[in-house]
Amino acid sequence: MYIQSRYKVNNELTLLTRYETFARDKNDKDGTKMEQESNGSIPAYFGYHHDTTVGLSYDFSSNFRMRFEYHWFQGAGRLTPVVLPDPEVNDNKNWQLWAMQLMYWF
Q: What superkingdom does the record give (predicted)?
């Protein structure tokens, strides 16, 4: 589930906010059951994923756009590999990501 809002400041600038939440099991939304069933080898944070995003896009012309996003994540329920989570590589339930996209169309 997610909720998203976009605000067009003017013809060139658009602001974005989004909150997304995901649970691998609707009966175990915080992942504690998954952690217990794996005898602690899979941390509970692999059972859910929450993403808070802010971003903006700027149109330099009618066919040239730059987009920026910043994400704050809690949980690793959507990281790959989801079949066999790797807690050694993904050893933190809180993490951040930024993205930049340059678009040109004709």
A: Bacteria
* 76 vs 71: CA distance, rounded Å: 13
Q: In what order do the strands lie in the sheet with 48-61?
A: 2-8, 13-23, 48-61, 64-74, 94-104
Residue 45 has φ and ψ, to the nearest 5°, of: -70, -10
Radius of gyration for the chain, computed over Cα atoms and rounded to the nearest angstrom = 18
How many Å apart are CA 69 and CA 57, to the nearest integer? 9
- Rounded to whole angstroms, how far apart are CA atoms 28 and 48? 9
Q: Write the pLDDT tens digit of every residue in 10-64.
A: 999 999 999 999 998 999 999 999 999 999 888 999 999 999 999 999 999 999 9
How long, in residues, is the chain?
Answer: 106
Domain parsing of the chain, residue ranges: 2-104
User: Which pair of tokens denotes residue 35?
Assistant: 């952690």
For CA atoms 58, 59, 64, 65, the dihedral sign is positive
Element (H, E) at 105: none
